[in-house]
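User: Show me a protein chain along with its predicted structure.
Assistant: Here is one chain, sequence first, then structure tokens.
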Amino acid sequence: MSVPKGHWFHYVSVAGNLHPLESLVVYALGLGIWMAPPELKTLFYTNCWVQAALFLPFVQLPVALTGHMAYVDIAWPSGLVAIALVAFLNGSGFWPRRWLMSACYLLHGGRMALGALVMFGQSTNFTYRFAEDLPRYRYAKHKWSQIDGMPESHWWLKMQQETLGQGFSNSVLLCVPAFLTVSNPAEGLHLLEWMGLGIWLGGWMFESAADLQKISFMEEQQRLRREGLNPGSPATLGLAPCDRYFLWTLCRHPNYFGEWTAWLGLAIAALPSLTSEPLQGHVLARLVYLLAILLIPRLLYDCLVHWTGAGPAEHFSVKKRPNYMVYQKEVRCFFPFHVPLVDHHQQEGWPSFEVS
């Protein structure tokens, strides 16, 4: 069931294409903070204060003053770094588990936060004052008014809800694997923990390699333009003659697939801690945390495909690159391999089909 065009639920809906009930479940995860057993309360409460201290002055206020949402691209990964520090400093579980999980979050968020600080800094002479918002957020505004049928005059309110929602996800959802595992006192690591950490490492490396290939492609295109060797239409990464960047021939967004895979690994690594000593006797809390773990890959998939990832990027690529629709038709959108019963969005002009 999709939310009808012009319906009030668009004001509170989560991500890009979730079922309304899924959005309500995300909000209900806030109960996990209130139900937290003593060993986890300090972790959750400290993290909530840190995320608020990060998002309110450095995201919500600039968004209100400038009308640009790009600031959240710095704050969200910085919030993951904060989760790593809170988990490491306050976790009381088995120390190798605490070190490993905290390191995963630190590397995961730190790479993106540093990259955003440098990229946005260089593009604005380190003033962080943007002439226009990022394409993904310009698309979000387009979707709000043209696709969802909501009043454009209320876009300022939706901007606050969408950016604050990323801080909320750091507070009640994405922190759950970290806080469960660093509170688990059981000695030795479970097979699922090793498996999850291995999947995280593979996904993180895959994402990093895809980003490096993208940077190399962009530097190559800039060099060709300077030398006057590329006067034609903009090239498409992953499509001939730029198909030597092989990860981008497997799917149109290998960096997003790597990001999703990494989060899938963190979710799997957290499963054994649902039965750890701190959660004994806390049946409802355990259920909430299980829902959070199950929702992580679902929400991240929706985010990376429909909300701030593939869809918004391709909305502009279709218009900017005449051959991009060939790329759409030939290459899967998200998964680098065929997954049955999954829409791989190989339709020309996806997501909005505005190809004129």
